[in-house]
């Protein structure tokens, strides 16, 4: 029974956050659909949730801005009196896919700082609402880039820091009945991945992932919503890879030398 429960999803106007918001809305949560600039997109997500019989509202706030985040959670406290689930998903300062030699310190530090500022402010303010009720779920959206030696070094460093941050929060908040987990997506078809969504990438994923395709936002939304909305309280402090099976095939290919299948 989830009547009255409230979820805040950062960066929920588009992509993975939008899919997560729709799934939580269908599960009976009142969803606060946070966005930065694209009010139109956030309103579309709210309308879709309401059309399906759910409840949601858009809320503009730059998650890198502590005062803006505080205003958003104060609004939730004043209007709803509770926060059951926080999903930190906003794609802050998405960096170019550049190697170290090609990056300026400004670009690198903007990504690392904005990723951490967003989760820092959201987590602090969310815990103020969750702790008194001794209940809550926090899910961070990281990336398999956290462990990668390729792609964007700024994204890798930011997401690796996020993974460690999330484990600290899990230890810190666990005794208050709050579970904290991190989902690490592989390649997901969103606006953010449009520039790398090439025929070459799709061919690579056909050969190198169990699902043989790029992931859809809903693939991630279902996993995130399961941790944000479910009763998976015994799983906390975990970083869970959701990459359509790239990881497992990479192991198979490196051990056996080729992809093996049953058919
Ligand atoms: N797509 C992938 O392949 C992939 C892979 C691994 C990890 N991820 C991670 O998954 C998460 C979502 O990515 P996505 O691909 O779904 O992104 P996306 O389609 O680019 O959507 C980004 C969302 O974040 C919001 N946002 C950006 N900066 C914000 C800020 N400062 N404050 C509040 N909201 C902000 C945007 O708001 P507006 O609509 O207002 O601009 C938008 O709703 C990110 O953390 C990303 O690193 C994605």
Description:
The protein has 263 residues and is α/β, with parallel strands linked by helices. It has a single domain (6-194, 215-244), classed as 3-Layer(aba) Sandwich (Rossmann fold). It has helices spanning 15-26, 39-51, 66-80, 105-130, 153-173, 199-208, 217-229, 246-256, and strands spanning 6-9, 30-35, 55-60, 85-88, 136-141, 178-185, 238-242. A 7-stranded parallel β-sheet has the order 3-2-1-4-5-6-7, with helices on both faces. The protein is globular. The protein starts with 5 loop residues before the first strand and ends in a 7-residue tail after the last helix. The model has no long low-confidence stretch (mean pLDDT 93).
Task: Give descriptors for this structure.
single chain; 263 residues; alpha/beta; Rossmann fold; seven-stranded parallel β-sheet; 8 helices; 15% strand; binds NADP nicotinamide-adenine-dinucleotide phosphate
Gist?
This protein is of the alpha/beta class and 263 residues long. Helices cover 46% and strands 15% of the residues.
Spatial strand sequence of the major β-sheet? 3-2-1-4-5-6-7
Helix share, percent = 40-55%
Stretches with pLDDT under 50, minimum 5 residues: none
CA radius of gyration: 18 Å
The proportion of residues in beta strands is: 5-15%
Number of domains: 1
CATH class wording = Alpha Beta
- List ligands, each type once: NADP nicotinamide-adenine-dinucleotide phosphate
Mean pLDDT across all amino acids: 93
Largest sheet: 7 strands, parallel
Q: Quickly give the structural class.
A: alpha/beta
Global geometry: globular
What is the CATH architecture descriptor?
3-Layer(aba) Sandwich
CATH topology: Rossmann fold
> What is the helix/strand order?
EHEHEHEHEHEHHEH
Number of helices: 8
Would you report the number of β strands?
7
Tell me the distance between the termini: 42 Å
CATH homologous superfamily caption: NAD(P)-binding Rossmann-like Domain
